[in-house]
Design a protein that fits this description.
Chain lengths: 172, 274
């Protein structure tokens, strides 16, 4: 009989994750117990991509870059906090990870209703640090930011526009 | 990062002054995945643990996707229309369940991966990338009701983790060589760049360890692979300020299997830094 326990070895919040994957027939006199430490990876969202308060005016674009710089075009007037989305990755110390972002634009619809003719686009997604980066050699953590460009139309219909954008952390 | 393109919109009509604000969405869908790569030999199966490490219940979706590695070590998404026969075979061969899981905070569940090898499949390494990501919560009615004059936006990141799943069929060999290690200094940080050349029918995976003449470890970058679709890739090894200061004279750079895989030496090169 072989009892195999698998443990997830990551710091926080998962003390009780153990899995018994097999425990069969008890006809044998010897038992082997093994504990396997699995490499794990966690991803948490820390802060949202924030475009602040924008007066649409006759329209334009606001681009909040992953490195926290802001570029604006057209007649848009903005105030308030503008910040990229922030994420934390935790995994194997010193490991290399890659972030992938959408290559196509996301569409934000009025009221989240995809049938609505009123919409805005979010594109030019960018990440900082660019390309692959290394998790900390001591803590196994790394932070990364994601930014994008919002295009605001002239006489954009009032209301709440909502949409999603995909962010994926890749192990090799 | 520089912005290369500006898009000018025509100024037309009367000015509509609408306040536009974005409402930060509560983090929902934080997740843990273990292990972070799966290798299945002939006829085997495996499992991956998914755990909700957020503070809210979340529903996760699991999907099998195709990626190709570039010579810079980045990944490109590949659609089914663009896929090679081997990539399509990998998608058909690798099955997993469940595909959608709702988990309470702190709750883990295993996802079982199994292989259905078709008859007559050529030997080789087949690979898909399993993506685990939270399904965004449905919009509440009040989300759609903005103020009468203002415009606000609500952006929901759909974020997840993607891990490679390899199926190896037959006896597959691989070898690698390293060359051209040199120091690159950029405003964003310094790194050692080198060329990794791969030969054989499968991927190679390991860590890069730099050692001084006295045997001191100067850097250690883990989890670097070269997949079968490329025979050559650039590797950039980030250097801490401390490692940069110590990078003097002859340095031996080893590419080794990870310790948990035996730690065998795959390839090595030497470089002398000024």
């Amino acid at each position: 009989m072989r009892n195999s326990l698998r443990f997830v070895a990551v710091g926080a919040a998962l003390a009780a994750a153990s899995f018994a994957t097999s425990a069969s027939a008890a006809a044998s006199a010897t038992a082997t117990a093994t504990a396997e430490i699995l490499q794990s990876l966690t991803l948490t969202a820390d802060t949202a991509l924030d475009f602040g308060q924008i007066a649409a005016n006759t329209g334009g674009t606001v681009k909040v870059n992953a490195d926290s710089t802001v570029v604006q075009t057209g007649a848009v007037v903005w105030t308030g906090t503008r910040a990229p989305a922030g994420f934390t990755v935790t995994g194997t110390k010193g490991a290399s990870v890659v972030v992938t972002l959408p290559t196509v634009a996301s569409t934000l619809y009025l009221g989240g209703n995809t049938a609505s003719p009123s919409k805005m686009t979010l594109d030019q997604f960018n990440v900082d640090p660019v390309g692959g980066f290394q998790l900390d050699a001591t803590t196994g953590k790394a932070n990364f930011n994601v930014g994008g460009r919002l295009t605001v139309g002239s006489a954009q219909t009032a209301g709440t526009y909502s949409g999603t954008f995909a962010v994926s952390v890749e192990y090799q | 990062m520089t912005v290369s393109r500006f898009r000018h919109l025509a100024m037309a009509g009367a000015a509509l002054f609408g306040a536009l604000s974005s409402a930060p969405a509560a983090a929902q869908g934080d997740l843990l995945i273990a292990p972070t790569r799966v290798i299945i030999s002939q006829g085997g199966s495996s499992e991956v643990i998914l755990s909700n490490i957020g503070s809210e219940p979340a529903t996760y979706r699991i999907s099998a996707e195709l990626r190709r590695m570039t010579e810079d070590g980045d990944f490109h998404e590949v659609t089914e229309a663009e896929a090679t026969p081997a990539e399509l075979a990998a998608l058909q061969m690798i099955t997993y369940a469940p595909r959608r899981i709702t988990l309470l905070p702190g709750q883990p569940q295993s996802v079982r991966i199994s292989i259905r090898q078709p008859e007559g499949l050529p030997d080789g390494e087949y690979r898909v990338h399993l993506n685990f990501r939270a399904v965004p919560p449905a919009l509440k009615p009040e989300d759609g009701a903005g103020s009468a004059t203002g415009v606000s936006i609500k952006l929901i990141p759909v974020y997840g983790i993607t891990i490679p799943v390899f199926v190896r069929r037959g006896r597959l060999d691989v070898s690698a060589t390293l060359a051209n290690a040199h120091l690159v200094k950029e405003p964003g940080g310094s790194f050692v760049e080198l060329d990794l050349t791969r030969a054989g029918q499968r991927s190679v995976y390991g860590e890069f360890i730099g050692k001084s003449a006295r045997g001191e470890v100067l850097f250690d970058l883990r989890g670097i692979a070269a997949y079968p679709e490329i025979t050559h890739r650039k590797v950039q090894i980030p250097l801490s300020p401390d490692a940069l200061a110590k990078l003097r004279g002859p340095v031996k750079i080893e590419y080794r299997e990870l310790p948990e895989n035996g730690g065998a030496l795959i390839a090595e090169t030497a470089a002398t830094f000024p």
